[in-house]
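ok trying again, last paste got cut off:
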Amino acid sequence: MKSVIEEIYYGNRGHSESIRESEEYFKVQREVGTLCEEFDKTLTEEQRQVFDKIHFLLSGLEAEATATHFKEGFKLGMLVAVESMN
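nice, full thing came through this time. structure:
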């Protein structure tokens, strides 16, 4: 096994593009997409603009939560590593 540090440095691990989502994730994603398309057909232009803004903000909210969870997981992993050295 290569060094984890080298794996991160060379971009082989530790970045979101290398993580595959579960089949359940894609199932829910397809369902959300279908519902959004159906809902979009019923909206006026003004409502569509509000809905688009909500969608944009929710995407940012998800990104922020993901980053926060990643940081906490990384910190926890480091604490486990330090404790295992003692």
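cool. The CA atoms of residues 32 and 62 lie 15 Å apart. Helices lie at 4-9, 23-40, 45-85.
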